[in-house]
Design a protein that fits this description.
This protein is about 50% helix and about 15% strand. By secondary structure, the protein is an alpha+beta fold.
Amino acid sequence: MKLKYTGPKEIISPHGVDFKDGKEDKYVYISYAMQIFYAIHHEYEKDRIYTHTIDKELLEDSHILNKVCSLKPDFEENCRKKISDLEEELDNEIQTVKEHTELVPEELTAYKNNLIIMKDYRLQRETNKVIYQQIIELIVDEIFEHKLKQISAPFNEKFWHVLQTIQGELSHHEKRSIGSTLDTTKTEPIVITLKINSIGK
């Protein structure tokens, strides 16, 4: 298992492979999510506001993977299981291409070859997605444990996406749904803030 950038969401057909705009690989958000985790993963004192300096350089992939594995002992096994299940689905998709009776033989061959060529790409993309989701779950666990009321980050598209994902995870959490709002400051430097409703006891 490894972290590695792939690219946007693939669209595979008998006529080739295209990529969907706006469906970026979760890999591009992982380092930013890990920065938020490090910013909130510490001991807390009541009524104190904490700040954290964001590293300008992206965190090393191996560092992120090792950290997640150390915090979630069953993570690697669960991740491998999910990827193994997906690989089985992709192999089945390749084997059942022949059932597309609307395609002529040349199209069937091209479609099967395109699926085979893109198999590793799709597996790595899913691996990145699983790792990203695990980091989001770690962040939400910290929010619940410390009853955090807000998280702020510098304004950019990557932090915005991560905070939106956290917001979604909070609203659908297995413990209970927690509402939140995401907003930006009106003056420079622009800051994104996720304000979290009271978690209670």
